[in-house]
Design goal:
232 residues; alpha/beta; BirA Bifunctional Protein, domain 2; eight-stranded mixed β-sheet; three-stranded mixed β-sheet; 5 helices; 11 strands
């Protein structure tokens, strides 16, 4: 899918792999970058995992937190209800200028959903978005959750893709505000699950998203220089 007007040059997307990163600290960094950026600031993509945490969107309702127990709950300013983040989940935070890309909010959501669908297709998994509930699903099970915030026509927050995350904490909430919604993960859907390495999938996803946005990917801060994206 092409999102770039023909008379505009291909712009770079600077992607960084941050490893395991604290949610609150990462959120503050995203907010600060969004507030301080100007027309010449580069578009960025952060790829990471978070320690166990429940995050509740700005319209989040308390009744969807069933039994959080010892897992922290953080109220945040993205869209959507409550979700869970933890190790083994690839979180992608695109900090993009919608004006520069020529996209509206719905278009950006579709790009993110399509990028996850393309990632899963590389593993012979048929996934799809749903018009009634943002995110990506395999059959009736949710494999990726999505929540964005737009400020000054720029995006932050993003998409969380279940790779080999422990799904048990999702039973302590109504994921994304839906009672009895089942979650799934790539490691349960892919026969070669033992070969999955989250940093490699992060690079793979970055290539796919850049392609969806008609951007030139620039990779930085990778955990190993030999990592190569797998073509979908």
């Amino acid at each position: 899918m092409s999102t770039r007007p023909e008379d505009k040059p291909i712009r770079p997307l600077y992607a960084e792999y941050l490893g395991l990163a604290d949610y609150v600290e990462t959120l503050e960094r995203m907010r600060r970058y969004t507030d301080e950026r100007d027309a010449d600031s580069p578009d960025k993509l952060w790829l990471l995992e978070h320690p166990p945490i429940f995050t509740q969107g700005q319209a989040g309702k308390a009744e969807h937190l069933l039994a959080p127990g010892d897992i922290p709950v953080v109220k945040t300013d993205r869209g959507g209800q409550v979700t869970y983040h933890g190790p083994g989940q690839l979180v992608a935070y695109p900090m993009l200028s919608l004006k520069r890309l020529g996209l509206n909010v719905r278009g950006m959501v579709s790009v993110l959903e399509d990028s996850v669908v393309a990632l899963l297709k590389a593993y012979d998994i048929d996934a799809a978005a749903r018009p009634d509930a943002p995110g990506v699903y395999v059959d009736a099970k949710k494999v990726a959750s999505l929540g964005l915030r737009i400020r000054r026509a720029c995006t932050f927050h993003g998409v969380a893709i279940n790779i080999n995350i422990d799904l048990t904490p999702f039973k302590r909430i109504n994921p994304c505000g839906y009672a009895d919604l089942e979650m799934t993960r790539l490691s349960d859907l892919y026969q070669g699950a033992q070969t999955l390495a989250l940093p490699e999938i992060a690079v793979q996803y970055a290539h796919i998203l850049a392609s969806q946005l008609d951007m030139q990917l620039e990779l930085a801060a990778l955990p190993a220089p030999e990592l190569t994206a797998r073509n979908p």
